Amino acid sequence: MSHVYELYYKAFETLRRVREIKTVEDNDRYCAVISETLREHLTVIPRLAMGVLECQHLMRPEDMDKFMNTLLRSRISRRVIAEQHLALTETFNSPWHFPDVKNDLESNADFVGEVFLRCNAREVVESCARMAQKLAMQANASNDMIPKITINGHLDATFPYILSHLEYIVGELLRNSIQAVIERFKDSPGKPPPIDVLICEAPQHVIIRISDQGGGVARELLPYLWSFSKGPYSETRLRNLNQVPKMAATMQELKCPEPATLESATKALHVNNKPAQVNSLSSLTSRPPDLKLGMGLPMSR
């Protein structure tokens, strides 16, 4: 916790000394400060989670969860603003930004900074499914045990969203479903039952429902499912978090046991057969896909 406090104190002291931005050069220097601060804060999420587990006997779980949820929401909002400024600056400095230059990168027109204007639910689920299945194949070394993922419903539903956030949420849910189905049917003959994804578009919402036959959540896990406090599993989660010094909470940072590059991760996450924008912070972090941290669902919420 003290490490996180010092990071935020340093960030405040650094940013409050930035003078009023009046020129493009001033903005470039400001962007360098923002980029460095974002890189330094990659340690915040695992350190916060470790702090919660270490302090769980000093505070009630519901109070600790309230603290974590409030802090993480604030962190996400600040990070989104910072990344949006960097992305808009990059767009401004790109050659195709100028009206007299032909835009050869049509996919960039679909983004306003970090916001993807035509986010297609089916395509996001498909791209996350491919990556989740690939990770499961390498972890289990058997393609026959990997369940098929079917997608039904309003397949043309589109909406504006921050792509990396949606990929993280859908990716975590699909990875949980795939692992549950594999564990339940590992000794059964034949292929496991499929995972069904239903997309429903309403006037104000797009709902993505993921259903599997993995047997549900064990009763002893239910009290800790949405909590950062993990009760009897705290020691295991703490040991696992010690192996993750940095975390950007993106789908791209999950690395298979085999050597993986940012290029291959980016290739696995295409939208409309065009390269999706990959958060630059993803290249600075990595974590094994089978390392259970107990943070996927609480972070997604």
Could you outline the blueprint of secondary structure elements for this entry?
Blueprint: H1 2-16, H2 24-40, H3 44-54, H4 61-93, E1 111-112, E2 115-120, H5 121-140, E3 149-153, E4 158-162, H6 163-185, E5 195-201, E6 206-211, H7 234-241, H8 262-268, E7 270-271, E8 274-275, H9 296-300
Parallel strand pairs: 3-5
Antiparallel strand pairs: 1-2, 2-4, 5-6, 7-8
Helix pairs in contact: 1-2, 2-4, 3-7, 5-6
Percent range of helical residues: 40-55%
Structural class: alpha+beta
Tell me about the largest β-sheet: 3 strands, antiparallel
The number of E-state strands comes to: 8
Give the integer mean of the pLDDT values.
80
Question: Strand-and-helix sequence, N→C?
Answer: HHHHEEHEEHEEHHEEH
Residue share in β-strands: 5-15%
**DSSP helical segment count:** 9
Tertiary shape: globular
Distance between the termini: 22 Å
Structural features, described:
A hairpin with a 2-residue loop joins strand 1 (111-112) and strand 2 (115-120). With 301 residues, the protein is an alpha+beta fold. 46% of the residues lie in helices and 12% in strands. The strands form three sheets. The protein has a three-stranded antiparallel sheet. A three-stranded mixed sheet has the order 3-5-6. A two-stranded antiparallel ribbon has the order 7-8. The radius of gyration is 21 Å and the shape is globular. Helix 2 (24-40) packs antiparallel against helix 4 (61-93) and helix 5 packs across helix 6. The protein is built from nine helices and eight strands. The longest helix is centred in the first third of the chain and has 33 residues, at 61-93.
